[in-house]
Amino acid sequence: MEWFKLLNWDTIMHWLNAFVTWLSPLLASAGVPEEYRSIVAFGFLYLGATVVVLLFVFILLKIFGVGRKPPKDDVVVEADVAEVSAEAVESTEVIETQPEAEIAPTRESEPTPEPTLGLFERFKAGLSKTQSTLVGRVDSLLRGRTAIDADLIEELEEILITADLGMQTTQQLIDSLESSRTKGELASSEQVRQLLMEELTKILSFDSKPLDVTSASPFVIMVIGVNGVGKTTTIGKLANQFALQGKKVILGAGDTFRAAAAEQLQVWGERADVEVISHTEGADPSAVAFDAAKAAVARKADILLLDTAGRLHTKVNLMAELKKMRRVLDREIPGAPHEVLLVLDATTGQNALTQAKLFNEAVDLDGIVLTKLDGTAKGGIVVAIAAELQVPVRFVGIGEQLDDLRPFDAEMFVSVLFDR
Ligand SMILES: Nc1nc2c(ncn2[C@@H]2O[C@H](COP(=O)(O)OP(=O)(O)OP(=O)(O)O)[C@@H](O)[C@H]2O)c(=O)[nH]1
Ligand SMILES: [Mg+2]
């Protein structure tokens, strides 16, 4: 500690004088008058000391991580998903409720993309619950069975019904199995599996008009469905996909039921970098449809995606409101909407089928989007909806990530389900 003893006033003054003497020639060459040189030298010394102290503090903060925000849990604030039931659809006709608190998904809440899985694997992961409820149970039934008899077919029937395939589809499948069995064509459990795969693919691949967004410009897609099923999320995902394909997309915030609905769409619009046409909360949804159609034409957009409410403030019939929006769109863009997409929540099982029937009767659907297949064992409902309505399932939602909306492909769906 010898050096510390040297640290008295005289030594400090000596060092300061030495510093001023050392700096003087420099200051002189810079044109600083002699009487100011000491003061300028002290100024430099002061500045230097401040920088050193700040650097020291900065290094300390870095080392000890002071001020670093604690890692946040991935907070995904979900819409207050109302219980969706057949009654709920009917009651959309006269509902007055407080706007539910819904916070639009933010970039922070976006789940971190998992390592890129192939399309098939990602689909398989999304459908895993349905796979174990349907095919998993079929496989356990078939395991070790050598004879394919009437009892086995009866047990299969029960599995198919409880896997939400619906009565009509189950009957169709059972009839086909029974007829093959009586003809002696079902000798092994593998043949049962094979026949089920073929029949399911056949049921799902009926003739329907394909979704061709290039068939009109702007191509107008009106997205409908009861509240909480995933309409706005689906629009966001679609907007992103179309924008990535280089299409000019415009979004219409036709859900004026809550201010948060337009805000939520705005967030999706920003993510996909597309324009959103919106009005204030409580505005006439048809007025939004009108403005959005006008904007889509004026901006020469390729696609207009129109969001709608799942329920209304006023005692207006939801179906009547949707029909009015249709008329307004058609007046502005003849032939529009070119696609009326009904969004259904797969986790609601048979309720989804009931909703689909009601909406189809009222609004004439062109296609269906079945969301939340990832969170449910009731994915068999895809088959029931396609078979009973003969309305094509266009997309399925298998998660909350941007690319978790997949075009529905009957063959792939069946192969994923039956993949071992
Ligand atoms: N797991 C999963 N969640 C989904 C999927 N699609 C939508 N969701 C979630 O479902 C919730 C409701 O989605 P929204 O898009 O707000 O539903 P909405 O139909 O617009 O609801 P309203 O505006 O209230 O009528 C959100 O938390 C979404 O993240 C999906 O395919 N899988
Ligand atoms: Mg919405």
From TrEMBL:
Signal peptide: none annotated. It catalyses: GTP + H2O = GDP + phosphate + H(+). Its main location: membrane. Gene3D superfamilies: P-loop containing nucleotide triphosphate hydrolases, Signal recognition particle SRP54, nucleotide-binding domain. GO terms for biological process: SRP-dependent cotranslational protein targeting to membrane. SUPFAM superfamilies: Domain of the SRP/SRP receptor G-proteins, P-loop containing nucleoside triphosphate hydrolases. One of its GO terms (cellular component) is cytoplasm. The chain crosses the membrane at residues 12-32, 39-61. It is found in: Cell membrane; Cytoplasm. It is a peripheral membrane protein. It is an enzyme of class 3 (hydrolase). Residues 392-405 form the SRP54-type proteins GTP-binding domain. Keywords: Cell membrane, Cytoplasm, GTP-binding, Hydrolase, Membrane, Nucleotide-binding, Receptor, Transmembrane, Transmembrane helix. GO terms for molecular function: GTP binding; GTPase activity; signal recognition particle binding. GTP binds at residues 225-232, 307-311, 371-374. Pfam families: SRP54 (PF00448), SRP54_N (PF02881). Its EC number is 3.6.5.4. Involved in targeting and insertion of nascent membrane proteins into the cytoplasmic membrane. Acts as a receptor for the complex formed by the signal recognition particle (SRP) and the ribosome-nascent chain (RNC). Interaction with SRP-RNC leads to the transfer of the RNC complex to the Sec translocase for insertion into the membrane, the hydrolysis of GTP by both Ffh and FtsY, and the dissociation of the SRP-FtsY complex into the individual components. PANTHER family: SIGNAL RECOGNITION PARTICLE RECEPTOR SUBUNIT ALPHA. Part of the signal recognition particle protein translocation system, which is composed of SRP and FtsY. Belongs to the GTP-binding SRP family. FtsY subfamily. NCBIfam families: ftsY. This is Signal recognition particle receptor FtsY.
